[in-house]
Write a structure and sequence with these properties.
160 residues; alpha+beta; three-stranded antiparallel sheet; single chain; elongated; Aldehyde Oxidoreductase, domain 3; 24% strand
Length: 160
Amino acid sequence: MGIRPGRSIRDINKVAWTRYSRSKPKRSYIKAMPHKDLNVFRMGTKKKDYDLEFELVAEHDVILRDNAIESARQSSNKYLEKIIPGNYYFIVKIYPHHVIRENKMIAGAGADRLQKGMRRSFGRPTDRAARIYKGKSLFTIYTNSAKESSIETSVNGFTF
């Protein structure tokens, strides 16, 4: 079984499970933190003479898993490196603080004797996600205005 579909964690108004403490682990709600998929937040060449800024802004409240953010980062960076190599600075502005909990169920013969179903289910931490509210910036790209036409024509499906 892979990861659960997005509809199982789509409600942004539920309680967030983010409390994890290294110094006082007994006070943590989360005893073991899931691994982090998103490790790189800044890519490209950092220069002070960029005169143009593009931002990808959320139109709706949404919860994004860290593996989805990582895949968007990789594909965007790869494409920018292809069309304007070395003439951009790309920043990921969100961090996945929210911990996703899942009550994993056993399937197969005899599984009914091994588990309690949904009784007192709290789940185990399985993944991380970022809660993104309407109007929040996800990614920022800095570049020169001479490169503007190549960027606008290449990503016409997105609103920057």
